[in-house]
Write a structure and sequence with these properties.
heterodimer, A: 333 residues, alpha/beta, Rossmann fold, 2 domains, 6-stranded parallel beta sheet, 6-stranded mixed beta sheet, 11 helices, 44% helix, globular, B: 324 residues, mainly alpha, ABC transporter involved in vitamin B12 uptake, BtuC, 13 helices, 1% strand
Chain lengths: 333, 324
Amino acid sequence: MKKLFQTAAASIIALTAATSHAEDIKPAVVFDMGGKFDKSFNEGVYNGVEKFSKETGIKYREFEVTNPSQREQAIRKMAQRGADPIVGVGFAQGPAIEKVAKEYPDIRFTIIDSVVDLPNVQSIEFKEHEGSFLVGVLATMASKSKKVGFIGGMDIPLIRKFACGFAQGAKYANSSAEVFSNMTGTTPSAWNDPSKGSELAKSQFDKGADVIFAAAGGTGIGVYQAAKDEGKYAIGVDSNQNHLQPGTMLTSMTKGVDVAAYNAFKSAMDGTWKPGKHALGLAENGVDWALDDNNKSLITDAMKAKVKEAREGIIAGSISVHDYKTDNSCPAL
Amino acid sequence: MDDLFLLLLSTLDSTLRVSAPLVLCAMAGIFSERSGIIDISLEGKLLAAAFAAAAVAAVSGSAFVGLGAAIVTSVLMALLHGFACITHRGNQVVSGLAINILASGLTVTLGGAWFHKGGQTPTLSGDARFSPISLPGSDFLAEIPFLGTIYVELISGHNLLVYIAFLAVPITWWVLYKTRFGLRLRAVGENPQAVDTAGISVTFLRYRSVIIAGILCGIAGAYLSTGQNAAFGKEMSAGQGYIALAAMIFGKWKPVPGLLACMLFGFLDAMAVRLQGVALPGIGEIPVQFMQALPYVLTVILLAGFIGKAIAPKAIGRPYVKER
């Protein structure tokens, strides 16, 4: 009798495990300003969730935020409709996720690019300074004038982290390299101003820069266009943007936002979703530089060797890349 | 010294590029408002025209066809504005705002439906864009010091629409002050009854002036998406229509002061870009935020202290009702 009971219990456990294994989830994603086709950060997330949807056949709800006040509304609406997990894209959604996550403690939230310290929130951050370091190395090596530029979107610590990593990489490749750094603006519209991006790029070209790294969302499109028009190089960000202007895109600093978004949905489905803070760097393949058919003629063997050396150094810990966000200052800039 | 000269030239060069759409929109605003129609729909017309230019240029492969489409689109929006506030005597501010909202939503929606890029249009290249024109004589004039450098670096090498923008100013001035049409247009903005008494149709005059405003905004929009940039991106006008409106008021509804106001805004913008992160002697590094706020701060200071009172056309904002 007792044995029979045990087997019954075991089979019930097995059965529940099996159902939770193929959990029927209703995933949702809230894109941020810039939109899911910004060819950059949001688009990375879009590609990740599309991949998940194609593989599993599970449809997801989505919303594109077009002004700051919509963030909280959109996330709350998703929660009210019973979506789970909900992925919030971008640092700016941090406060909104925090507020809604408190109201709905049973729903799983994933925030990309920010940290929200709650038991039902998974925070995914990237070590952008490490990836930026690598493209900084490439930039200086490709530059003839040994002057390179950085153009950021909105002036926030996260973007300064990119700038700082880039400057350190540029100076690692050549200690006398000069780095110019500009920010597009101080409001969210700075992510969507290609005209301003193009003007900033031209001003840096005028100062002698010949490679520019843009971490500026849609504003970057103007930077890449200006580089193309002037016959200089530009470096893309977040997604692989080499295809945007083949021939003048030196490389792109890629963030594994697609993988992060994919994993958030996938792990929720498998039941392996875990809250807490995750920082993805070079060692975790969270950041990288892009090499494909569009830019392989621009990257020499010497550049590959140098960037490989830098990558190994960072992973092994022999090169330490300063993270701007730890003390809000940058020794290299 | 030479470096400083080149820096100044590149700043002025950038000023011309940045202020070109502002100048066109400000002239559009002058035409509309001098005839008594408030035109806050500059922004919407600019955005819609930018979209039309990029979309049509992408499909047809010709920047000029794109320009035509931009002008047609912008004129249609201007006519809508006219229909609401001239024919039906609606509130001009409300109608203008409605057009801005309409343009903001419609461009992204149509763009998404046609190109499946979330409101962006495909990147343009070659003939689908207005490329820089090298003015005649650039080659040998470059040899002449100072003046030659100015000619080559500053005046030559812009695209066609920039030259059109700056030509629009003397043309506007000539039309407003030297033609019969201009005299009537100014009169209808000050005292429509008098114009009506003289046997001239107030309605027709006002329609013509909003159409001209539409044409100018259309050119400005085409410049944004097919000259300065190489694609349409959502909300790419980024408030430039409103800045042009401010510049126009700043310039007291007159073409030349309006041009100067636009160029001042453009210059401050170009300066802000170049002074970012640069340590000035004696002052140190200027914060980005300060440089970005400067145009607005200056506007307030200049308007309050130096420019004097800006007096609007007397009949502005008031629909004309024929007395019976």
